[in-house]
Design brief:
By secondary structure, this protein is of the alpha/beta class. It folds into 2 domains: about 80 residues, Periplasmic binding protein-like II (D-Maltodextrin-Binding Protein, domain 2, 3-Layer(aba) Sandwich), CATH 3.40.190.10; about 100 residues, Periplasmic binding protein-like II (D-Maltodextrin-Binding Protein, domain 2, 3-Layer(aba) Sandwich). It has 8 helices and 10 strands. A 5-stranded mixed beta sheet has the order 2-3-4-1-5. A 5-stranded mixed beta sheet has the order 8-7-9-6-10. It is elongated.
């Protein structure tokens, strides 16, 4: 018996709403089967697809592992989760929602640090003075390592931050962060600035 391809949609939040709106506009209404919190669904007029609801990060990892055939998720999660993303999965189309940037940010009071080259100088000085790398808090460890390598930045160490990364400099967890932002307001509220050439990825669904 031939197995239907599996389409994964975000299970909650704005990505879920926008994905379902997009499919509805194309004539395909998505309904959850079972309870309202169920993780399976069906697409009106199409019985040749199986629909599942997963978190955006689970969609990225499931594409990597071959557990699903199609999915709607953020490009940031794909490029963080899957090395050589373009060779492993087909990025079919940009959907025009879920816009956000993955950025390098640090305290506004670091007046002399405006670029990645400036940051590299600080990292070298920090290592020479303290004997250990300057701390960078992020949940985007792979993206951070690749970007810093491209920019020639060394002498740092990554501190994994699963949430509230913007608070890391204030609470002393890290001196620099790599985080995702859509408006920059949270960074400004925490008195952080984005480096001039510190945009790692302009992401969308």
């Amino acid at each position: 018996m031939k197995k239907n391809p599996v389409l994964a949609l975000p299970s909650k939040g704005r990505l879920m709403e926008k994905a379902q709106e997009l499919l509805a506009a194309a004539g395909y209404r998505i309904e959850r089967t079972g309870s309202a919190r169920g993780y399976r669904g069906q697409m009106s007029g199409r019985d040749d697809f199986d629909v599942v609801f997963l978190s955006a990060s689970e969609i990225a990892s499931s594409l990597k592992d071959g557990k699903i055939d199609l999915g709607v998720t953020g490009e940031d999660l794909l490029r963080e989760t899957i090395a050589a993303t373009d060779k492993v999965v087909d990025l079919e189309t940009k959907l025009g929602f879920g816009h956000a940037d993955v950025v390098v940010a640090l305290p506004e009071c670091w007046l002399d640090v405006a670029t990645m080259a400036d940051l590299d100088e600080v990292c070298v000085e920090w290592y020479a003075r303290h004997g250990r790398g300057l701390r960078v808090a992020t949940k985007y460890m792979a993206l951070t390592r690749r970007f810093f390598a491209e920019k020639g930045v060394t002498g740092y160490r990554i501190i994994e931050s699963p949430g509230a990364t913007e608070g890391a400099p204030a609470n002393g967890t890290a001196q620099v962060i790599v985080d995702i932002t859509s408006t920059g307001s949270t960074l400004k509220a925490n008195r952080l600035k984005i480096l001039d050439d510190g945009i790692i990825l302009r992401s969308q669904a």
